[in-house]
Design brief:
Strand content: 15-25%
Number of strands: 15
Radius of gyration: 22 Å
CATH superfamily of the largest domain: Metal-dependent hydrolases
Bound molecules: zinc ion
Distance between the termini: 35 Å
Oligomer: single chain
Strand order of the largest sheet: 5-6-7-8-9-10-11-12
Shape: globular
Length: 417
Amino acid sequence: MTQIMETLLPDKVDTLFINCHVATMADNALSIIKNAALAITGKTISWIGKKKEVPDLLKTKGPKVIDCHNGWILPGFVECHTHLVWAGSRSNEFEMRLNGASYEEISKKGGGISSTVTATRNASKEELFILASKRVDALLKQGITSLEIKSGYGLNLETELKTLDVIQLLDKKFPLHIEATFLGAHALPFEFANNPDGYIDLVTQTMLPEVKAQGIATAVDAFCEPIAFTLTQTKKVFETAKDLGFNIKLHAEQLSNSNGAALASEFNALSCDHLEYLSLSGAKKMAQHNVAAVLLPGAFYFLKETKKPPVDTFRDLKIPMAVSTDLNPGSSPVHSMTLILNMACMLLGLTCEEALLGATINGARALGLELSKGSIEPGKDADLVVWDIDTPEDLCYLAGLTPIDVVMIKGRIHQTT
Ligand SMILES: [Zn+2]
């Protein structure tokens, strides 16, 4: 073993973590190395092994040595599904719901997604940037090192572009890796209330080509449900998106079975998300096309859902399960990945190992980043967190606690406590 590792020794080491245990999340398991050492060269993980096997050569190369005091190193969380660029507040609706108001009543009083759309349209780019920055900062403090953000509260060309511009600005400001997804087909804007096909034409003929021309998103998502868009309309969006070279994702089977997952699979989607009402045939299609299942227990919790996504089927068919906050103002205003890990276990029945895989390597799969992110292996990006915990399972068990010692993103340390 030592022999093999020495043959792979890096020429140079910038940072050496010692006195740590590592859950690498390689090979679809926690894949624990106790009493480990971990070497970083530039932006990349360059060596990992038992501390006693650390070759003297590594020590002589003058790296910065970080003593983890028996803490645990895990890959930084890959948060694969958020809607965190929005303006306005929906906390009043939360209180109305607790006082017994129905969604219809809230909607009639100007609430619901339309209130977020109006506030987001009225906000300046600077205002949106300030609001979204606070949310990204909160996620960074949760050990998230890669983050997907969707547009979808503009629902017109101007505001969708403004939202995607804000995401680009966030990418420049924060050290995290950010992926932008265009979600123009999120909901029907009021000006198209009687003309959903007309809105889909706007999305496919105007918005998508412009988003592509500006290079401000890598993926296209849609919401396929009776309350949003039909299978035919979703297919139209995907056909244009695929022609333009976007990756595909879908909010599918959250409130009913619309066969969206099967459609998205035909387009080789990266992921289908929610999936409470997924059918067995839809799951088989996902397995056949290697589509990840993104589970969103925050929305399940906030909407008081009772139908769970078919976790046993995902296990049987070896469909990778990702876990995400779904951070959004309506159905999941949850800013805590560790709380979501607990919810994934308690509400959806995942094991701690599955939940942690969901927030790391499977989150990376849902974004098409699994070759560079989501596990601790030589050659991958040095995105990792040192946690002051006794076991990896503590991250699921100690609900909402975030005992972070060090966050490293692409080889640079960004936060120590
Ligand atoms: Zn969502």
